[in-house]
Amino acid sequence: MSIDKETAAKVAKLARIRVDDDRLEALAGEFNAVLGFIEQLGEVDVEGVEPMVSVTPMRLKRREDVVTDGGMQKKVLSNAPDAREGFFAVPKVVE
């Protein structure tokens, strides 16, 4: 697959990125380089290779999954412009 100037302009518009017309050719070249690299990755034989989350083998820290209220109600509500009876107070918007 090859990206041309028009496709690069369309991608930039969809991503809400302003790209000058004189930079579109270079952007299309960068997209093509990325797509070429992805095609190279598709050629690699990964049969029997375990997925990794890090280059060094390590276990993630685990904690007991317990539901709590956080214990910080006063601290959280201290930033609220209006708090009543332990909750955020907001203006009524629905009749």
Q: What share of residues are in beta strands?
A: under 5%
| CA-based gyration radius | 26 Å
Supply the helix-strand structural class.
mainly alpha
Helicity level, as a percent range?
25-40%
CA-based shape: flat
Strand order of the largest sheet: 1-2
* Helix-strand sequence: HHHEE
Calculate the terminal CA-CA distance, rounded to whole Å.
55 Å
Q: Total helix count?
A: 3
- What is the arithmetic mean of pLDDT? 90
Overall strand count: 2
Reported for the largest beta sheet, the result is:
2 strands, antiparallel
Unreliable stretches, pLDDT < 50, 5 or more residues? none
InterPro entries: Asp/Glu-ADT_sf_sub_c, GatC
EC number: 6.3.5.-
Catalytic activity: L-aspartyl-tRNA(Asn) + L-glutamine + ATP + H2O = L-asparaginyl-tRNA(Asn) + L-glutamate + ADP + phosphate + 2 H(+); L-glutamyl-tRNA(Gln) + L-glutamine + ATP + H2O = L-glutaminyl-tRNA(Gln) + L-glutamate + ADP + phosphate + H(+)
Subunit structure: Heterotrimer of A, B and C subunits.
